[in-house]
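Supplementary Note 2. Why include the ligand at all?

Several targets in our set were suspected to adopt different conformations when bound, so apo predictions alone were not considered sufficient. For every target with a known small-molecule partner we therefore ran a joint prediction. The input for FE2/S2 (inorganic) cluster is given below.
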Amino acid sequence: MPKVTFIQPDGSAETVEIAEGLSVMEGAMEYGIPGILAQCGGGCSCSTCHCYVADEWVAALPAPADDESGLLEFAWEPKESSRLTCQIHITPELEGLILHVPEQQI
Ligand code: FES
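The joint prediction is reproduced in token form.
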């Protein structure tokens, strides 16, 4: 299973294995990653699964769909690298993906 690393605002990091086909958010929930709330359960309607994708990984991800882009405007301090983790689905190509958890959600 591909490994995904979540880096917290304090610099601490946790690497977990997420099954292909699951979303990054689902993996984060499974492992209880702090700071990812996912209040809508993956419905792309809350933005509380927001993370910043590490710079070196931004180009590796498919561009966000319009509904994700629109919702990201309401995320806490969105940046160019912002994504909703419920909209990132794990593939073998994402082995080693690195995400930064924001200081807060919304
Ligand atoms: S879990 Fe609500 S937008 Fe991702």
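Residues 3-100 form a domain with the Ubiquitin-like (UB roll) fold (CATH 3.10.20.30). The two ends are 31 Å apart (CA to CA). Comparable summaries for the other entries are listed in the accompanying table.
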